[in-house]
UniProtKB/TrEMBL annotation:
It comes from Brevibacillus laterosporus LMG 15441. The chain crosses the membrane at residues 12-32, 52-77, 138-159, 171-192. Residues 31-156 form the VTT domain. The gene is yabI. The keyword GTP-binding does not apply. Keywords: Membrane, Transmembrane, Transmembrane helix. This is Inner membrane protein YabI.
């Protein structure tokens, strides 16, 4: 799904579109989560949606979808992983998720956000492994906040090129995300400094 299609869809259905597109990502909806969050930022930048509500809808959609994955893993247990593992589409990703958890433990919750599909499977695996929801929520929700902020501001500031940037980020993972974060932080600081300089200047006409 292209940015133009997403843009039209979100313009038409608003915050609910952002939420449900991300919430349904857990069932394999063929729309990159990054693109949905970034398009939410783009729509907010264009003035169609409130920036705060648009971000909150996206963040709530992300954590809701991943929470459902955790509880499905807790309630259904190994059978759902066994069934998914038999499918060619999910088998390699389940192996990758399991290997990631075995190697990095709890830190895998951070890494999984940068890996498409894996981010939706890790909640199942850690739930089956016995991780408590409190621990899962602490690490997953905090990481999700950083992840959502990064792609939201990406769409807000660089909306016209967001689909190309996200394609690169999905390919190079950590490196691109850190570059994106650095650019966004730099841009925010630059705009803040410019605003502060303007506010400190007194127009000549006001001087007596």
């Amino acid at each position: 799904m292209s940015v133009d299609v997403l843009l039209h869809f979100i313009e038409q259905y608003g915050y609910l579109a952002i939420f449900f597109l991300l919430w349904l990502g857990i069932v394999g909806l063929p729309v990159p989560d990054e693109l949905v969050v970034a398009t939410g930022g783009l729509v907010a930048a264009l003035g169609y949606l409130n920036p705060y509500y648009a971000f909150f809808a996206g963040y709530l959609g992300v954590v809701s979808g991943l929470s459902i994955g955790f509880f499905l893993g807790r309630w259904v247990g190994p059978p759902i992983l066994t069934r998914l593992a038999k499918k060619k589409k999910f088998g390699p990703y389940i192996d990758r998720s399991t290997a990631l958890i075995q190697k990095y433990g709890t830190f895998s919750l951070f890494i999984s956000y940068l890996l498409p599909v894996v981010r939706h499977l890790v909640p199942y695996v850690v739930a089956v492994g016995g991780m408590t929801f409190r621990k899962y929520a602490l690490y997953s929700y905090s990481t999700g906040l950083i992840w959502a902020l990064a792609f939201y501001f990406l769409g807000y500031f660089f909306g016209n090129h967001v689909d190309h940037i996200i394609a690169v980020s999905r390919h190079y993972g950590f490196i691109t995300l850190w570059v994106i974060l650095a650019l966004i932080i730099g841009l925010i600081l630059y705009r803040f400094c410019c605003f502060k300089k303007r506010s400190n200047k007194t127009p000549e006409g006001d001087q007596k």
